[in-house]
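User: I'll paste a sequence; please echo it back and then give the predicted structure.

Assistant: Echoing your sequence first, then the prediction.
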Amino acid sequence: MTGDLSETPKGSRIRISFFGLRNAGKSTLVNAFTGQPVAIVSDVAGTTTDPVSKAMEILPLGPCLITDTAGLDDEGPLGEQRVRKSLDVLATTDIAVWVVGADGGDETRARSLFDAECAGRAISVLEYRRGDSVEELKRRIAELRLSETPPGLLDGLVAAGDRVVCVCPIDESAPKGRLILPQVQVIRDCLDRGVWCAVCQPRELPGVLSDVACSLVVTDSQAFGAVSDAICRFADGGGKAPRLTSFSILFARQKGDIGEYAKGLAAIQTLRDGDMVLVAEGCTHRRQCNDIGTVKIPKALLKMTGRKLRFSFASGGAFDFGDGADRARLVVQCGGCMLTRREVMLRISRCREADVPIVNYGMLLAAANGLPIGDVLA
């Protein structure tokens, strides 16, 4: 969901995370870095027990999410859990800062673990020694060139002066008084490119197509059937049919791997009675009636396969295949508007390594409506 429309979505922010031993001064640095009392500061080792994040802007780098973590030398059963939670932050981190404490504690084991995790994820690493200039650290971070910049949502699909129609159903599952984040971001991308953008509901699309010579229609995946029918009728009447895709598929192009999703789509027909399907959403919105993840995706899969499938559901950062008889045989991943490309690609990588097929919401619903996938991948 959109949250505060004045803020850059977390999924579009550069993630900068701070690591080190207990009492190295990470929290003090985070507070100085953000200019706000984000983290609790104390001389007691282990004061920070869970990751703490703060959104801010660093020019010329842009919108960022700053995260403080617990010390990687924490001890005992609870300490081990804190260390794991800290290392889990690396799954979404673009730039990692190792904070060297003033007391010269033995960093060897923790630093080796940290370096290995960062190397495996191609994360940029900087080192900060307690007492160094915070402004100099900001300058060094701002000068970094990240290894991968996600493409724009509409890259290669439109040019300045083109016309796009966004179909945004306002039904019982739509948030009151606002649009959902994927719709907002696509509309903004149109404006940034000098593309003329019209917004309508499915029932209004026939009239819009008659009035607007558009080159692309972007729909909510749940409305694929009605929107496709409207475009076909328009073409049968002599109109030039625009290309069709969905908000979810645009995000799949930007943040995911279309080829891997296509394999997952093909694997749907291999499902058998009793198989478990994991439906994974990146956001944590309250489930509505006719919710896409818990209602419409399962309904579509049951119809497509004719099998008696079982379903598990994950939201936010949760992503667990399960085990034994409850191990997922297919993952259905949302577009990922609230996730970074790094997070989505990590999920795809985990699925590949575990030999679990993964498919995108939009691609699945397009196939469920009988649409040729090649035609809606834009």
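The longest helix spans residues 292-305. Residues 1-6 have pLDDT under 50 and may be disordered.
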